[in-house]
UniProtKB/TrEMBL annotation:
<dbReference type="Pfam" id="PF06824">
    <property type="entry name" value="Glyco_hydro_125"/>
</dbReference>
<dbReference type="GO" id="GO:0005975">
    <property type="term" value="P:carbohydrate metabolic process"/>
</dbReference>
<dbReference type="InterPro" id="IPR008313">
    <property type="entry name" value="GH125"/>
</dbReference>
<dbReference type="InterPro" id="IPR008928">
    <property type="entry name" value="6-hairpin_glycosidase_sf"/>
</dbReference>
<dbReference type="InterPro" id="IPR012341">
    <property type="entry name" value="6hp_glycosidase-like_sf"/>
</dbReference>
<protein>
    <recommendedName>
        <fullName>Metal-independent alpha-mannosidase</fullName>
    </recommendedName>
</protein>
Length: 439
């Protein structure tokens, strides 16, 4: 993301909920033998609450990304997801997370195609040259399939952890219907979709080609996406990890329909759509690589063209088990993982300081801290998890926080000093390692 130029929104510092304080106290004991890692964890674990979170008077919660004063649906979920396991017996965390879910639902009703929103209808926008149907509430209107999936992900995780049902009102059910209808529309983007997006800033990755429609696609049963989780335009508009995430979201929505709303008709519709998307992934989303065997492609157009790469953002190919589509032992995933962590992936870099996955969103040879954290979270061995934690610990450039991308030869050269999502993902990895007793 480019550096935003508007004044920063002052975010009042929240009092840390007791459950979060308890985790930090636990870390003081379990990480005492690694003082730098302990300090990193103490900085990063509460960072979202201390710097990006605002409790609103209407009972909702507004979470900015850090160095940008807007709330990305995707980022805001991943910024708080590591707190969800702590929320069952902590009313303060329930207020924060439940309030964020309620705000997400408001945003879906405002514009289900948008990826980032303002705190109020202040008419702030990432770029004033965007040609699309903007709203004063919308900071950016890049349609990314994962944005809506993340809304479902947080609500589902919160419900399963806390067993609280106050979020499931009529507005929530209507938002689920809106997500379903949009997914159905985008199965046939060229025939049915009203969505267009171009940005006149001279950066090709910020606009959809073909007059804002995107490049041609064949019907596959999968859901069309304009942009990736990096906010860059897709090369081919069926993003495979994004569609895998949609399958997971549709399964979770089925539980809402069956067990919360008792709506068997909606349940049947969701099941049918899940089958169509999953069938499309299996039929069109697997590429037979001459070295690695069957692997999941990153993108396809349904005409037999493939984008073979992985990007550090979530959802990406590395994060498939993290999202819950298949387990880490899935043979096609394991082939894909070997591909993603090889030089066959054009965005895998090795240098003097680190090796890992970067992104076309940042310069060549820049590895992302989020990619290292995700590699650790999806690793099957404790040795690989510990290797990733050590690499993250060694590449913070002395700042005490995680960043976006850093140069493989020199971690002191990096992008985004304040990137709360990256801090949260790192915290999730370290906390899981603490719980597993491998540190």
């Amino acid at each position: 993301m480019e550096q935003f130029r508007l004044p920063k929104i002052p975010m009042p510092k929240l009092e840390l909920p007791q459950a979060v304080q308890d985790v930090l106290a636990e870390a003081e004991v379990k990480l005492a033998f690694r003082p730098k890692l302990l300090q990193l964890f103490k900085n990063c674990f509460p960072n979202t609450l201390e710097t990006t979170t605002k409790l609103m008077d209407d009972g909702t919660t507004f979470v900015i990304t850090g160095d940008i004063p807007a709330s990305w649906l995707r980022d805001s979920v991943e910024q708080v997801i590591h707190y969800v396991p702590l929320a069952k017996n902590d009313p303060e965390l329930q207020r924060i997370i439940g309030g964020l879910i309620k705000r997400h639902i408001q945003y879906v009703h405002i514009d289900p195609y948008a990826n980032a929103f303002n705190e109020t209808a202040n008419d702030w926008h990432w770029n004033t040259t965007d040609e699309t149907e903007m709203s004063p509430w919308v900071w950016e209107r890049k349609f990314e399939i994962d944005s809506l999936c993340f809304v479902v992900r947080l609500a589902y995780a919160y419900w399963k952890e806390t067993e609280l049902t106050d979020i499931f009102d009529a507005g929530f059910k209507a938002a689920m219907r809106k997500i379903y209808e949009l997914f159905k529309t985008e199965q046939r983007h060229f025939e049915q979709s009203p969505y267009r997006f171009t940005r006149n800033n001279g950066i090709p990755a910020d606009s959809l080609r073909n007059g804002g429609l995107g490049m041609p696609v064949n019907y596959t049963g999968m859901i069309w996406s304009g942009f990736r989780s990096s906010d860059d335009a897709c090369d081919f508009h069926y993003n495979i990890p994004g569609n895998m995430f949609a399958v997971v979201a549709l399964r979770q929505m089925q539980e809402f329909a069956e067990w919360v709303f008792r709506d068997l008709d909606f349940l049947a519709e969701l099941k049918e759509l899940e089958f169509e998307v999953d069938h499309g992934i299996k039929l069109y989303g697997i590429y037979r690589h001459p070295e690695f065997g069957p692997i999941y492609a990153y993108e396809t157009d349904g005409f037999g063209n493939y984008c073979l790469m992985d990007d550090a953002g979530t959802p990406g190919l590395m994060s498939i088990p993290y999202l819950g589509y298949v387990g880490a032992d899935d043979p096609v995933y394991q082939n894909t993982r070997r591909f993603a962590l090889s030089k066959e992936n054009p965005f895998y870099f090795e240098g003097k300081a680190a090796k890992g996955i970067g992104s076309p969103h940042t310069p060549k040879d820049y590895i992302w801290h989020m990619a290292l954290s995700m590699q650790g979270l999806t690793a099957r061995t404790k040795e690989e998890k510990l290797e990733m934690i050590a690499m993250l610990e060694a590449t913070d450039a002395g700042t005490g926080y995680m960043h976006e991308g850093f140069h493989a030869d020199d971690p002191n050269t990096f992008t985004r000093k304040w990137f709360a999502w990256s801090n949260s993902l790192f915290s999730q990895l370290v906390y899981r390692a603490m719980q597993e007793g491998i540190l």
